[in-house]
């Protein structure tokens, strides 16, 4: 296929976006899939005056044909923290919102992993997709240019609403200011009320050549149970990241779940979101953290939070089936130099309390090498690690278990 820009009516118009011919965002992308599936704005291949005329006629026909129909949203956009897109995808499949063979495109924004799915089995309930940072109906999507037919559909879907237009652009294809000006002009001309003071946004996410025009349906705070959190504490983990860690270990009601450095209790609360019947145990050496976690976990009958040193827990051997922990990064809490001994001693204690069967752990650390070393010393096995970013800092979620005996 030629990498030259297609000559279409759209290109002649001073619209935003340029066809750079570059490959889109890493991995499998909506742009690729749209082209494969003949998606709504896949770039036309034909060239020349005849092709140009034919395309105009087709666009006009499509517009007239669509005139009597009610436009439907084109899919869903769900986002996770950087590095957690695949976990979010696994959660979608686990909840059977997405079948194994259903299409889902994973793309990477600066501060989010973005997942686009043309179809979900149902609208996700507030109890589902705890690892999602936000969720949107995608009204229209496409690539390279926002075509006339997409503008018509978007205008139809937004009729009667007041929206604040917010455009973000990752990559060099779209310029967000140009696109915002263009959309403002074209949508207003089609009767859409765009207003900077409106509470509800129309979000347009551009990632390389692909764009997704979306309206939000849920953000992280609206996930079930998050309103039970009473107190914030500096350095606490964003709940969707805590949820992703819990989800990776698939908590069940039979589990006894320990966070030995629980801070405000975010990880235990999220684990309880997946397994409300599980026993939750938190410890922290900071008395203020203990008070905070107790308040945040008050609604869980099975939660217990104690003031203790994670290196010497008052728990019987082989009594904990699941450990979730955000170990100090050595910045806000702890010290980088001390982390080597801290990680080793905490893991020693984790090893002691681990049940011989079915044990697993998910630990968030800034230095995965240190944790791997500590795991090796204590006989815990590293199953997997996932590089993520937490509030702009590089970190890793390391999954551990116990090797089968003998
Ligand atoms: C990164 S914070 C945990 C934040 C927590 N995940 C949350 O969402 O609030 C690390 C916690 O480890 C605690 N800590 C550090 N060393 C400890 C130790 N030896 N024993 C118990 N707690 C410790 C600190 O007091 C701090 O609350």
Automatic annotation (TrEMBL):
Pfam families in the cross-refs: UPF0020
Low complexity biased stretches: 41-52
Residue ranges annotated for the Ribosomal RNA large subunit methyltransferase K/L-like methyltransferase domain, each copy included: 226-388
Sequence ranges of Basic residues compositional bias: 53-63
Residue numbers spanned by region Disordered: 1-72
CDD domains linked to this entry: AdoMet_MTases
Record protein name field: Ribosomal RNA large subunit methyltransferase K/L-like methyltransferase domain-containing protein
